[in-house]
Write a structure and sequence with these properties.
The protein is mainly α. It has 13 helices and no strands. It starts with 11 loop residues before the first helix and ends in a 5-residue tail after the last helix.
Length: about 260
């Protein structure tokens, strides 16, 4: 081992550096050292590690986002969910090895895309709801806007940053085959609609005794699948998105019983 002068005064960071390379036994135990840096109480070592982890996390997030953006581009170009992992890798300009560092396969990439889409949709819905003045108006706006978000795009029409397949086609598979993953993915939208229901109940426009978590799930499922499968009844041919959304809102809010 190397010798260290015992009468040398070390700073706190120098002491930490010496300990990291094995000089710990050489430093006098009674040697005064500088105090740890002020702030949140962490040592310089802890701060250095935190900065390193933050930097690595940021790089990883950027690489993941490049894969997600590549998948969105492929979906927007009309390939739907039929793109391959290799196509995503080539479009992202990264390696196949890098892809499998972050995703177990195509399903996990689609799940990441779906979760990203749900969060973006929740943010947009929150902005639209803020434009309304009353609790019932916010409920109405939620149902109508969410219906429009879930409508499949016309063939050949460019999709938005939040592709409809991520909110409809993949959702069907997710809800059927992976219900726990689906529940986690839908949390932002469910929470937003539940808050709208709570507010409406407090305003006296909903009947008492409703389980808002359950109601939120039922309504969201009805909106999403009605928007996606409306071609079955021919509704998408006879009516536009706006009229169909309004019809669904009337049915959900007022039911089918006579007043």
């Amino acid at each position: 081992m190397h010798a260290v002068e015992r009468n040398t005064r070390f700073s706190y960071s120098e002491m930490e550096a010496l300990r990291r390379v094995g000089y710990d036994f050489c430093v006098p135990r009674n040697e005064p050292v500088a105090d740890p840096p002020a702030g949140d109480g962490r040592s310089w070592r802890e701060l250095a590690v935190a900065r390193s982890l933050d930097s690595a996390r940021t790089r990883a997030e950027h690489r993941v986002q490049r894969f997600i953006d590549a998948a969105v581009e492929l979906m927007n170009e009309g390939s739907g969910r039929e793109f391959t992992v290799q196509e995503v890798v080539e479009r992202s300009g990264q390696s196949l090895r890098s892809f499998y560092q972050f995703f177990d396969g195509k399903h996990e990439l689609l799940l990441a895309l779906f979760e990203d889409s749900v969060r973006a949709t929740a943010d947009l819905l929150r902005e639209r709801l803020a434009e309304e003045d009353t609790a019932v108006a916010r409920l109405h706006r939620f149902v109508v806007e969410y219906y429009r978000f879930c409508r499949p795009s016309a063939k050949g029409k460019a999709r938005t940053k939040v592709p409809a397949p991520a909110l409809a086609e993949f959702a069907q598979q997710l809800l059927t085959d992976h219900p726990q993953e689906a529940a986690r993915a839908f949390t932002p939208i469910v929470a937003l609609f539940r808050d709208a229901l709570d507010e409406a109940a407090a305003a006296g426009v909903l009947r008492s005794g409703l389980r808002h978590d359950r109601v939120a799930g039922v309504v969201l499922e009805a909106v999403m699948f009605n928007a996606f499968s409306s071609t079955i009844s021919g509704a998408s041919v006879r009516t536009g998105d706006g009229e169909a959304a309004e019809e669904l809102w009337q049915l959900l809010f007022h039911g089918i019983a006579a007043p």
